[in-house]
Amino acid sequence: MKHSTLLLACILLLQNTAAHCAENSPAKKADHPPVAPSVIILKSESGKRPAVFPHAKHQAKHDCDTCHKNENFPTDKKWDLKTGHALCMGCHKAKNEGPTKCSNACHQ
After folding, report:
1. How far apart are CA 5 and CA 11, in angstroms?
2. Which of 20, 49, 96, 98 has fewest C-beta within 10 Å?
3. pTM, entire model
4. Which of 99, 48, 91, 45 is nearest to 68 (CA)?
5. Taking Cα atoms as reference points, which of 68, 58, 39 lies closest to residue 97?
6. pLDDT in tens, 51-81
C-alpha cells in the first residue's frame, strides 16, 4: 500500500513538473512576454500630442500576432506617423470600428 501511494505521488509530481516546464520554457517566454504594458504612449514627431494606445483593451479582443506579425508592424520597434497610421488606422478602417480620423481619441 505504501509503495503504491508513493508511486502515485511521484507520478503526479512528474506530471506537474512537466506541465510547469512546458508552460515556462524559454521558447514559450520568447514568443509571449509574461507582462505587457496596459497602455503604450507613442510619441509624435509631427508636433501633435502623443498617441495613447490602449494595449490591454486590444489584447482582450485580439491575438498578439494580429498586430505583432502584421506586415506594417515595425521590426525595429520604432514607430512613426506612417507606421501608426498604416497599422492602427488600417485595421480600424478594415473592421469599421475605432477611430479612423485625426481626433482626440488617439492623440491625447
Report:
1. 10
2. 96
3. 0.58
4. 91
5. 58
6. 888 889 988 988 888 888 888 888 887 777 7
Q: Which residue segment(s) compose the domain that 24 sits in?
A: 2-31
Whether 60 and 85 share a structural domain: yes
Q: Is residue 24 part of a domain?
A: yes
Whether 22 maps to a domain, the answer reads yes
Q: Mapped to the 3 state alphabet, what secondary structure does 74-105 carry?
A: CCCCCCCHHHHHHHHHHHHHHHCCCCCCCCCC
The answer as to whether 23 is a domain residue is yes
pLDDT tens, position by position, 96-107: 888 887 766 787
DSSP codes, 27-75: HHHHHS-S---S-EEE--TTSSPPEEE-HHHHHHHS-HHHHHTSTTS-T
In the chain, the number of structural domains is 2
Candidates 89, 108, 91, 85; CA nearest to 100 is 89
